[in-house]
Design a protein that fits this description.
By secondary structure, the chain is an alpha/beta fold. The chain folds into two domains: 4-226, 3-Layer(aba) Sandwich (Rossmann fold), CATH 3.40.50.300; 236-261 and 282-329, no CATH class. The protein has 13 helices and twelve strands. The protein has an eight-stranded mixed beta sheet, with helices on both faces. Strands 2-1-4-5 form a four-stranded antiparallel beta sheet, with helices on one face. A hairpin with a 2-residue loop joins strand 9 and strand 10 (231-237). Helix 5 (124-137) packs across helix 7. The chain is globular and about 65 Å long. The mean pLDDT is 90. Belongs to the ABC transporter superfamily.
Length: 330
């Protein structure tokens, strides 16, 4: 049985004059210790997916349907008291900005110790000892001293390491990392991602990495979900999706990478923009931007179909695969 099984998850937001759909019947599984990536442009629904998995959607948003089964328990139907036993304890989340996550008026030690004591029957001395060990795991120098410091006294990279240490405090089975290096310098980003990968592998912790960076996904994950306008449009092994993308949108994302363009030439872009939630087109939501779109694409929503080890939501994939084979044999 999968550690996490999401089935037909739908999330909506109640606006003043209408209700919009942010996630439209998405389904996927995460195995124990498995690392998956969720990629797509801003507005695709990546972060909403992460927040939904911990039932952290706040009003006017709400989970309108589907299941979020974590170890067989449906998080979407849990009461707050039950959720507190899951959040931070068995599932942890790393947010984009550590300065928003960390409490500026509490020391690092207070925040770590209180987290431990809220979930475990420990003395303060025992909790401090565990906090020091976790800080040492993420290569924080002089961890005993850091316990007495406030977040503003530390660098951005060190704050993010502390966030990772806090996420691992209670030995969770799954970590959701939402753009964990966005607020950091490029030189520090690689170190943080390498650290996160090392810790997940050594502790056998599952990882859901939410990012727009396909380069990071290719190095960090075993499987990738590609999202567009609140839907999963491609799902499969990361290596296959990076090397041989099937959906035209995924192909566009790969082609837009800087390394895909010759020096001195313009970067390749996907024409148009992600549709607003209030203006999702009928049929395939990517059809207005897709050079392969047909009348069927513009009127009928494509279902997920399996092609080998990859699942794709596209009417034209079969034809495109046949054309590709013809070119190879010509």
């Amino acid at each position: 049985m999968s550690l996490l099984s999401v089935r037909d998850l739908t999330v909506k937001f109640a606006m003043r004059d209408q209700t919009v759909t942010a996630l439209n019947q998405i389904s996927f599984d995460v195995g124990r210790g498995e690392r998956i990536g969720i990629v797509g442009e801003s507005g695709a629904g990546k972060s909403i997916t992460g927040f939904s998995l911990l039932n952290l959607i706040s009003k006017p948003g709400f989970i309108a349907g589907g299941e979020i089964l974590f170890d067989g328990q449906d998080i979407a139907k849990m009461k707050e008291a039950e959720l507190r036993k899951i959040r931070g304890n068995r599932m942890a989340m790393i947010f984009q900005d550590p300065m928003v996550t960390l409490n500026p008026v509490l020391t690092i030690g207070q925040q770590m110790v209180e987290t431990l004591m809220a979930h475990r029957k420990l003395s303060r001395a025992e909790a401090e000892q565990i906090a020091v060990l976790k800080l040492r795991e993420v290569y924080i120098p002089s961890p005993e001293e850091r316990l007495h410091q406030y977040p503003h006294e530390l660098s951005g990279g060190m704050r993010q390491r502390i966030i990772i240490a806090i996420a691992l405090l209670l030995d969770p089975q799954l970590i959701i990392a939402d753009e964990p290096t966005t607020a950091l310098d490029v030189t520090i980003q690689a170190d943080i991602m390498e650290l996160l990968l090392e810790l997940c592998q050594s502790n056998k912790v599952g990882l859901i990495l939410i990012t727009h960076d396909l380069g990071v996904v290719s190095q960090m994950t075993e499987r990738t979900l590609v999202m567009y306008a609140g839907r999963i449009i491609e799902n499969g092994p990361t290596r296959e999706i990076i090397n041989d993308p099937q959906h035209p949108y995924t192909q566009g994302l790969i082609n837009a990478l800087p390394q895909q363009t010759l020096p001195g030439h313009k970067l390749k872009q996907i024409p148009g923009n992600m549709p607003a939630l209030t203006d999702i087109p009928p049929g395939c939501p990517f059809s207005p931007r897709c050079s392969y779109a047909t009348d069927r694409c513009r009127s009928e929503r494509p279902r997920i179909s399996r092609y080998g080890t990859v699942e794709v939501a596209c009417h034209e994939v079969e034809r495109l695969l046949k054309d590709e084979k013809k070119e190879m044999t010509a």
